[in-house]
Each structure stands twice: as structure tokens, then as C-alpha cells.
Amino acid sequence: MSTPTTVLGEVRPEHDSPSGSILVTLHYQRSFPLPIGTVWAAVTEPDVLARWYGRWTGDPSSGRVRLTMTDEHDSATTDVTIVECTGPRSLVVDQDGWRLELQLRQVGRVTTLGFLHRHVPRSEVAEIGPGWQYYLDRLGALLVGQREPHWADYPELGESYR
């Protein structure tokens, strides 16, 4: 195993939680030399999403889909509620109680993806943080044609989130 070269997420305090709350937001940012439509397709189209995160089934126009994880790290199936979808710029979902927000912005030939996992208990960031790094690195590898990372290299990054 080796520690992957990756961009760490930031742990930010929750501004809409009660004072003294133990909840935080995990924030990640990635940039890709690709049009916004290509990145949007990678995070919303079931066949492409399945290659780095999971495959959804169902009718997204109903506001709900089922997501089955498709990698070496996880194979669980969860319910996903689509809270907001304004393609190709914004997607907010509730995945089994996890509020996940995705924002895309294109400047010139570069699309920047901002990803937030809100309302994370502070005690869980060392476990959850490396997981999102792993999935976002898988997305990046898919989009730019690099070798896919392996989950076994990520858990040791948990200390970076404490």
C-alpha cells in the first residue's frame, strides 16, 4: 500500500447548526480540463456514474432513485432523494440521511466541481473524509483516463481529518 497523492477535503464548521454543535461539512474541490456537460454526465448518467461510484435505478423525475455502489469498497444499495437538480450546474441529494451537494462551474476550458457532504458528526470525519477522496479520485481517473485508485490506499488518510 502507498499513500495516494490526492487533494484533501476541508472540514468546515456548520453555520446553520446550533452553537456548540458537533456537526461539520466536508468540502472538496476538483478541476478538470473538460466541458461542464462531460463532468455533469459523469455525475448524473447511470452508466457513467456506475464506473466510479454507483448505479442508480428508477425514475429521477419522481424525485427518488435507488443507488447501488459498484466498487471494491462498498456494494450497498441505498435510497436517494433528489432535493434539487439544475443541470448542468447543481445537484443536491439526500442519500440515506446524508446531504450531498454538488456544484459545477466552467471557466474557459476548465470545469470545477465543488462537493459538500453536510451535517457530518465530527467523530465520523476521519472515516468519511478518505472515502470521498477515494470516490472523487475515481471520478478524476475516469474523466482524464488515468489508472483507477484502490480503496486500500485511503483509510490511512483519516488522520488528516482530525
Automatic annotation (TrEMBL):
Family to which the UniProt record says this protein belongs: Belongs to the AHA1 family.
Cross-referenced Pfam families: AHSA1
Domain of life, source organism: Bacteria
Activator of Hsp90 ATPase homologue 1/2-like C-terminal domain segment(s): 34-143
The protein's name: Activator of Hsp90 ATPase homologue 1/2-like C-terminal domain-containing protein
Organism: Rhodococcus zopfii
